[in-house]
Amino acid sequence: MNPGVQATIFTIVFMILVITGWGDRTLRDARWKPRTLFLLLALLLVAAPWTLPGPFGLRWNLAGVLLPVLLIVRLLQRVNNWSSRLQYILALMTVASTVVVLMTLVPLDPAFFPLEGKYLYPLAAMLVSVASIRRPFIALTIAVGGLALGAWIDPFIHDRVDVQAIVLGADDVRDLMAYTALGVLLVHGPYHALAQYVIGLFRQVFNRQQEGGPEHV
Fold first, then answer.
1. What is the pLDDT of residue 163?
2. Angle, to 10 degrees, between the axis of helix 34-47 and the axis of helix 5-19?
3. 51-53 and 59-61 beta bridge pairing
4. Contacts of 183 (CB under 8 A, 6+ apart)
5. What is the mean pLDDT of each run of 10 residues along the chain (217 residues)?
6. Which of 32, 59, 125, 217 has its CA 20 to 30 A from that of 140?
């Protein structure tokens, strides 16, 4: 399948799911109405074929750049204090660093890793964000934005291609972002529900041990 096709398919599927009310928890966290998100996804579909010239001889795909930028701007709007903003920016850089490290190691020895890069990079971004961020929209933003940032940084630090050939947010990167978004949306709720359940069990066991222990005079 050609690069970018999967991102387009996922975008259309997300639009259908938004209409049916899926992802309501994430929408509430972002304070976006379903109609607003539907229009933003439609905008990404329209922008996907457009590749525009940028500074320093770079080119950028309109949809591939708009998606992480819109998410990060909305995240900064939703967070009221600078300490939380700094915390999330650090989380964003952590995901980006993880992706860059994997993009460095996977081409060196692909057989060492259980998954291909196109699956491993979104999986790593999703796991780091879901495990560390309890709010679903912020976890989604950290994962997608961090992966996009890591994918943009990788060609520069490894001199993989000529600078003038780099397309920020290219079709293959849009596919990676689509996989990442899907993974976060599917995993975030069940993961944190299970984590809360396990923590509750440990607390019950700990409290019972304290109640059954020797009394102190």
1. 57
2. 160
3. antiparallel
4. 122, 123, 126, 143
5. 84 89 84 89 91 77 90 87 88 94 89 87 94 91 94 77 69 92 92 87 76 53
6. 59
What local confidence, expressed as pLDDT, does residue 165 receive?
65
For 176, the token pair is 């990676």
Could you identify the residue written with the tokens 């770079």? Answer: 58
Distance of CA 96 to the CA centre of its chain: 10
121 token code pair: 């990079």
Q: In whole angstroms, what is the distance from residue 69 CA to residue 67 CA?
A: 6
The token duo for 109 is 């020895």
The H-or-E segment that residue 55 falls in is: none
How big is the chain by its Cα radius of gyration, in Å? 20
Predicted model pTM: 0.87
Domain residue ranges in the chain: 5-199
- In the sheet that 51-53 helps form, which strands lie side by side, from edge to edge? 51-53, 59-61, 167-168
184 closest CA partner among 217, 138, 116: 138
pLDDT of residue 217: 41
What sign results for the dihedral spanned by CA atoms 32, 36, 37, 38? positive
